[in-house]
Design a protein that fits this description.
Chain A is mostly beta strands and 391 residues long. Chain A is built from 2 helices and 32 strands. A 4-stranded antiparallel beta sheet of chain A has the order 1-2-3-4, with no helix packed on it. A 4-stranded antiparallel beta sheet of chain A has the order 5-6-7-8, with no helix packed on it. Chain B has a two-stranded antiparallel sheet. Classes of the chains: A mainly beta (391), B mainly alpha (300). At the A-B interface, helix 2 of A face helix 6 and helix 7 of B.
Chain lengths: 391, 300
């Protein structure tokens, strides 16, 4: 046996090296971002809008099926040449190879705006799902734009933000940053709060685009801050979490285990829940600074998205392909659900409360994955899987 | 498993970036130099092995002719020849194979460290092994030309391909092509020179020993530069910087002056020793030639 192994040593070495080298030859992951999920109201119904890579789709919240196209005059379903019902899908392949990483939003019942990754703002006829017009943008976009008062605030992948009038799609002003803005801006009074991976959090006048203040958070900032009790709560890649006043002063700081990327959640007692990329969840009391109530590593891999607090539970989704339900009082694990194939769960989760326009009778937790076979998964609040949307 | 190679590279690159005044181009250049110096013994071994194989080619050819009807004997004789000359016929491949993961790791380190999208940045979060480097993220991926040219030439984005950058970035694939060709020419030139000397000495038929290998070598000199130039056109500019640096080091390494210097530094023995002549049992004994005694000058 020993002689056999010695004779075959070269072959074994060769095999080991080949195995080692092959995964590298496959190349590094070339994707851009994870799916973006939002809600959109069309014709009195609320649909789930899902944008990922080369498609934007509207889904019915009750069953996750693609929403049908409806004739606005008589309310009947539109059908294609083969008499099949037409569904609300905007394909990048029909629109110059467009890639989508931001959720669409409604202008009116017949118009939807989508910003693509190909430096374009698309005005889409939502009745027949066709691009009416496209307007060039300065750069690629990976974060949801913010619409307020007829102005669209578009953050760019490589830096800066443009304010665009939705009347004539003209740029009103531009705010430069040294690196990209990868989170949706937050509107606080007349201030736009922008987080940039250039390490700064900016407050900008929404009318003029002038800087009001900026604060260095020591590391890249890639999430939308949480506004609560006239304070901003946000984490950075400097393994820190901050409490910041609305005039840009850091009031308190807490050291996390790794980068903080997700927007935190807060409960009615002022406890902020923060996730980090080491798989930790931290519960911090905000009364009088940031004081740790509990901190626990719950996932094998990092948690990119922010948590959701519902009732007595804190819910987090991890890169390890699992969704965790924790007791918000002590961080004890109550429930964990593994997604088939354990795809990375990187996108923000969304909680849907029952409402007449959503047509659901129980809360739904939407979790998105980067696996196109399980792009959007809906759970009941108890962790029971309700439906899965594959592309 | 692959992360064991990749993550240290990413960490060292980020550390060099911090140490070199946050200049990513300089960090890539220095890391490439370090890697090439550390892997020099492997390169040298590969070169030495190739050289020795070239040196024994005439003897191998003789054996092939001698035992053309007895494959078993041919195999035994070849093994003996390899043994006596301390040549491993696949010895040149192993150092090359070990270099592959290192080189690919370096390329991927550039790709990951210069994370330009959310996906890439999420990946980077698990790759930095030394605390304190997080505050450097994102690494500056825009390269500004030197001051006199800065006003004329726009910045280069090191994460984008030359075609997506300002036009002057197209010079980089060209530079990769030229430097790869230069390195190939020097590498092959050394071996070719060595081989042709042996051909002159030993080949009775006048046919070049290892003609097929020579043809292959020639086509490699043409194909490799085109291939690497094409890669550089498709992949990020950061990769071109790595290729150019690596090739220039290769040019220095394979130039006669560079080789002498490196041999002194690494105290290597030269591979230019004559091959050991192997005598087989069934060989005819070499004919003894009488040596003429020199006539002593007569004393007058």
């Amino acid at each position: 046996m020993y002689i056999y192994i010695r004779r075959r040593l070269h072959l074994l070495l060769l095999l080991a090296l080949t195995l080692l080298t092959l995964p590298a030859c496959v190349g590094a992951r070339m994707g851009v971002s994870w799916p973006a999920v939002g809600l959109i109201d069309l014709n009195g119904e609320t649909q789930i809008a899902l944008a990922y890579n080369n498609e934007v789709t509207l889904l019915t919240p009750s069953n996750g099926a693609p929403a049908g196209l409806v004739n606005p005059v008589d309310g009947s379903l539109l059908r294609d040449n083969q008499n099949n019902p037409r569904t609300w899908v905007l394909r990048g392949s029909d629109n110059g190879g467009a890639q989508f990483h931001t959720a669409p939003f409604r202008i009116d019942d017949e118009t939807v705006i989508i910003v693509d990754h190909n430096r374009r703002l698309l005005r889409v006829d939502s009745v027949i799902v066709e691009v009416q017009r496209s307007f060039p943008l300065l750069d690629k976009v990976v974060a949801n734009p913010l619409e307020a008062g007829g102005v669209l605030y578009v953050p760019f992948l490589n830096g800066g933000l443009s304010a665009i009038s939705l009347d004539d799609y003209r740029e009103l002003w531009r705010f430069p940053t040294d690196a990209g803005i990868w989170a949706q801006p937050l509107l606080v009074n007349d201030m736009l709060i922008l987080s940039s991976i250039d390490h700064y959090l900016y407050a900008v006048d929404r009318e003029t685009g002038h800087r009001i203040w900026s604060v260095d958070l020591g590391g890249a900032v890639a999430s939308t801050p949480l506004l609560a009790n006239d304070r901003l709560y946000i984490g950075s890649f400097n393994k820190s979490f901050f409490e910041i006043s609305l005039d840009g002063v850091i009031l308190s700081q807490y050291a996390t285990q790794n980068w903080v990327w997700g927007t935190p959640a807060i409960d009615e007692y002022g406890i902020v829940y923060v996730t980090d990329l080491s798989g930790y969840v931290h519960a911090l009391d905000t009364s009088g600074g940031l004081r740790e109530r509990w901190s626990a590593q719950i996932a094998e891999r990092g948690v990119r998205a922010g948590p959701i607090v519902y009732g007595e539970r804190v819910i987090v989704a991890s890169r390890d392909g699992k969704v965790y339900w924790l007791d918000r009082n002590d961080g004890q694990l109550i429930n964990a659900r593994e997604i088939d194939g354990r795809p990375e769960l990187l996108g923000d989760m969304m909680l849907l409360e029952p409402s007449p326009t959503l047509a659901i009778d129980a809360p739904l937790l939407l979790v998105n994955s980067v696996d196109e076979g399980r792009l959007l998964i809906a759970f009941g609040i108890d962790g029971r899987q309700t439906w899965v949307y594959p592309r | 498993m692959w992360d064991l190679i990749l993550n240290p590279f990413v960490t060292i690159l980020a550390w060099l970036y911090a140490a070199l005044n946050q200049d990513i181009v300089l960090a890539i250049v220095v890391l490439t130099v370090i890697i090439r110096i550390l892997t020099f013994p492997l390169f040298a071994k590969q070169q030495e092995s190739s050289k020795k194989m070239q040196q024994i080619q005439p003897q191998l050819k003789k054996l092939q002719e001698k035992y053309k009807n007895d494959k078993e004997k041919l195999s035994q004789a070849q093994m003996k020849l390899y043994r006596e000359n301390k040549v491993n016929p696949v010895g040149g491949c192993f150092p090359m194979l070990i270099q592959f993961p290192i080189l690919i790791g370096l390329y991927q380190a550039i790709f990951f460290a210069l994370a330009a999208t959310p996906f890439q940045l999420v990946d980077l979060s698990e790759r930095l092994l030394v605390p304190g480097l997080d505050s450097l993220i994102p690494l500056q991926r825009m390269w500004t030309p030197i001051p006199p040219l800065a006003s004329l030439l726009p910045e280069l984005d090191l994460t984008l391909a030359p075609l997506e950058n300002p036009h002057y970035a197209l010079l980089l694939p060209l530079l990769v092509l030229v430097t790869t060709w230069g390195q190939q020419k020097l590498t092959m030139g050394t071996m070719g020179q060595n081989k042709s000397n042996k051909d002159d000495d030993d080949d009775d038929n006048g046919a070049p020993a290892g003609g097929q290998a020579a043809a292959m070598t020639k086509s490699m000199t043409t194909i490799m530069p085109i291939m690497f130039g094409f890669f550089s056109l498709q992949f990020s500019v950061g990769l071109s910087i790595y290729f150019v640096t690596s090739n220039l080091i290769g040019v220095v390494q394979y130039s006669p002056q560079g080789k002498r210097l490196l041999e002194r530094v690494f105290r290597r023995k030269s591979a230019d020793e004559p091959p050991v002549e192997v005598i087989f049992e069934d060989d005819e004994p070499p004919k003894k030639t009488r040596k003429r005694k020199k006539k002593k000058p007569r004393k007058k």
